[in-house]
Amino acid sequence: MQKFTKTKIKISFLISFCLFFGGYYQSFPQNIKFEDTLIGFASCGSGTTGGKGGDTITASNAEDFLKYIAQDKPYMILVFGNINLPKKMHRVKSDKTIMGIGSAAKLRFGGLNLSGVSNIIIKNISFEDAVDDSINIEKDSNHIWIDHCTFSNGRDGLIDIKRRASYITISWNKFSSHQKTSLVGHSDNYKEDIGFLKVTFHHNWFNGTKERHPRIRFGEVHVFNNYYTNNNYGVASTCNAKVLVENNYFANVKNPTVTGYLSSPEGNLEEKNNVFLNSGPVQTKGIVFDPSEYYDYTPDNAVDVPKIVREGAGAGRL
Description:
Layout: E1 7-10, H1 15-20, E2 35-38, E3 55-59, H2 62-69, E4 75-79, E5 82-84, E6 89-91, E7 96-100, E8 106-108, E9 111-115, E10 118-123, E11 126-128, E12 135-138, E13 142-147, E14 150-152, E15 159-161, E16 166-171, E17 174-176, E18 182-184, E19 198-202, E20 205-207, E21 215-217, E22 220-224, E23 227-229, E24 233-238, E25 242-246, E26 249-251, E27 255-259, E28 268-272, E29 275-277, H3 305-312
Parallel strand pairs: 3-4, 4-7, 5-8, 6-9, 7-10, 8-11, 9-12, 10-13, 11-14, 12-15, 13-16, 14-17, 15-18, 16-19, 17-20, 18-21, 19-22, 20-23, 21-24, 22-25, 23-26, 24-27, 25-28, 26-29
Antiparallel strand pairs: 1-2
C-alpha cells in the first residue's frame, strides 16, 4: 500500500481584501487564521484543495450562495451571517471551498448534497434545522473535508456518507441536539460500497447526540481523538466494515462501541488507548487496518481529548 503524507492547506487573505467588504471587516476577529492541517483520508493522493485557485466571492443571502455552489468551476465561497436556504437539498459542484467568516456564519433549513463530485472543503459554518440531511455525500464523491462546523437539529442525518463515496475527513466539528448523527454506508444490501467508504473522524465532539457516531457498513473508517458525552452508543461497525477506534474519550456513553446493530450483521472493530468514564461495555471483533498505510497522523493522548476538543471543535474556533 502506497503511503501518502498529509497535505498542508493554506488559505490566505490580504487585509485589503477584508477592507473591500467595509463593515464586515469589523465583525470578525482581525487575527483569524485561514489555515489548517488536513489529516486523514481526504489528504490521500493529490489531497483536497477545494476552490483554491478560483475566484473568491462572498455570499450573504440564499440567492448568491446557491448560484455559486452550482458553478462548474472552482470558487472560494465566503459565507457571511445567517442564510436561510429553501427547505430541500441543494447540490454542490466540484472544486469548492465553502467557508464561514467569523463566528456567525450559518446555513438553516436546507441541506447540502454532494453527489458525484470531488475536491470540496466546508469549514466554519453552523448547520441548523435541515429538513433532510445537513450534508449528504454520495455517488462516488471523493476528497471531501468537513472541518470546524457545528451541526444541530436536522431531520435525518447531520452528515451521511454512502453509495461509493470515499476519501473523506470529518474533523473538529461539534454535533448536538440530534438523534441519528452520521451514517457511513447506504444499506445492508448495497454491497457496491465494498472497497469504498474510506473515512476519517477526528477531534469531533458528539455532545448528547443519541447514535451513529458513526454507524458504519462495509467501509474502512478511522475514529480517533473524538469526544463522546451522554450518548446512547458511540461507534457501530456492521456488514464486515473495518473500524479502528483509538485515543477517544467516552463519558457517560451507554454503549461506546458495538459490532452488529439491529438487523445488520457484525463488522470488525478494534479499540485501543481509549478512555471510558461511566460508560458501558465495549465490543470488539476481528482485525481491521492500519491508517498509517494511507496517511501520517499522531493522535493526542485520550486523557487530554476533553479539553482539546471542547476548546477547538465547532464553528468560530478556527
